[in-house]
Amino acid sequence: MAENLSVKHLLGIKHLTLDDIQLIFKTADHFKEVINRPIKKIPSLRDITIVNLFFENSTRTRISFELAERRLSADIINFSASQSSVSKGETLIDTVKNILAMKVDMVVMRHPNPGAAVFLSKHINASIVNAGDGAHEHPTQALLDAYTIREKYGDVKGKKIAIIGDVLHSRVALSNIFCLNKLGAEVTVCGPATLIPQYIQELGVKVNHNLKETLNWCDVAMLLRIQLERQGVNFIPSLREYAMTFGVNLDTLNKIERPITIMHPGPINRGVELSSDAADSKHSLILTQVENGVAIRMAIIYLLAGNITISNFS
Ligand code: ASP
Fold first, then answer.
1. 297 pLDDT exceeds 80?
2. Which residue, judged by its Cα, is nearest atom 4 of ligand 1?
């Protein structure tokens, strides 16, 4: 297995090789052990400075990145668009160039526009980690999801994964489709026709609009939130109707003949895509996903920082 990533940035799963993904998982195995020690901090990135640029709200992803960076002893700067000169009309490139002039090595960025991370990577020298760009990609989420499946089942290859809900507006769905396909899983997307993009089969997935059939087929069901903030028009008649047709509760899960696992990237809309009794049941891996998120983000930052050091000195 390669010892370095083939990329300088983590812009999307699309750009990673299978070897990159396996290397991230192997490195995360080590960091998962580290974060379960009484002393969770290691000095690996003492000479690296990272800025977390969040142009869009986030709870889990932001805290997870910050913890990962602190566990690796990096110096960090947090930036949130609402408290910055962006609200005074400054451009993205100007904001980032000014921050980088203060000698920052890595930028973790969440942005509402698809392609923002790729755009930035063409204009600046620092390493960029895409922490979610609009409805495009959310690569660290897909990596932590696949890592959680690998941990539960030993391997992702051959597993049947259903992605259920608002696939149309979901960056988690797209990154997961790329990641699970690369790892050899079988993927089916499920939801109302209005929330499943046309031609999605061309990405190598199956489509099934029947929730019961899909749940009876899969090993893992990934539930997605209805992305109300990204919907200009109504794609579903009401949340209540969505919950009745595509919502998963404990009763639904108990009626499936084989045991299945449920996952959710958060935040959960309890009572819409997932009921509380299902979210908090033995079927749920949701909090394991959150725990694994820190190890996966440590692995990505550590490996990208290795590439920065190599390119600076070679
Ligand atoms: N937390 C995930 C994201 O940032 C999923 C969601 O918001 O529904 O895309």
1. yes
2. 132
CB 110 less than 6 A from any atom of ligand 1? no
> Whole-number mean pLDDT of the chain?
93
For residue 255, give the DSSP letter. Answer: T
What is the pTM assigned to this prediction?
0.95
**What mean pLDDT is predicted for residues 138-150?**
98
Ligand 1 centroid from CA 268, angstroms: 9
Q: Identify the CA nearest to 31 among candidates 310, 302, 309, 288.
A: 302
Q: May I ask the CATH architecture of the domain 13-137+291-305?
A: 3-Layer(aba) Sandwich (3.40)
- Evaluate if residue 313 carries a pLDDT over 90: no
Q: Which CATH number fits domain 139-288: 3.40.50.1380, 3.40.50.1370, 3.30.200.20, 3.30.1300.10?
A: 3.40.50.1370
Q: Is any atom of ligand 1 closer than 6 Å to the C-beta of 165?
A: no
Rg, Å, the chain Cα set: 19
Distance 97 CA to ligand 1 centre (A): 27
Euclidean distance between CA atoms 241 and 69, whole angstroms: 42
Output the six-digit token pair for 206: 């199956």
Are 187 and 216 spatial neighbours (Cβ–Cβ below 8 Å)?
no
| Strand ranges, E, within 134-247 | 160-164, 186-190, 206-207, 220-223
Backbone angles phi, psi at 45, to 5 degrees: -110, 40
Closest CA to 71 of 35, 105, 107, 32: 35
Ligand 1 site, residue 138, Cβ cutoff 6 A:
yes
What spacing in Å lies between the alpha carbon of 136 and ligand 1's midpoint? 11
Q: Order of strands across the sheet with 75-80?
A: 75-80, 49-54, 106-111, 127-133
> Percent helix, strand, coil in the chain (nearest 5)?
45, 15, 40
Amino acid at 182: K
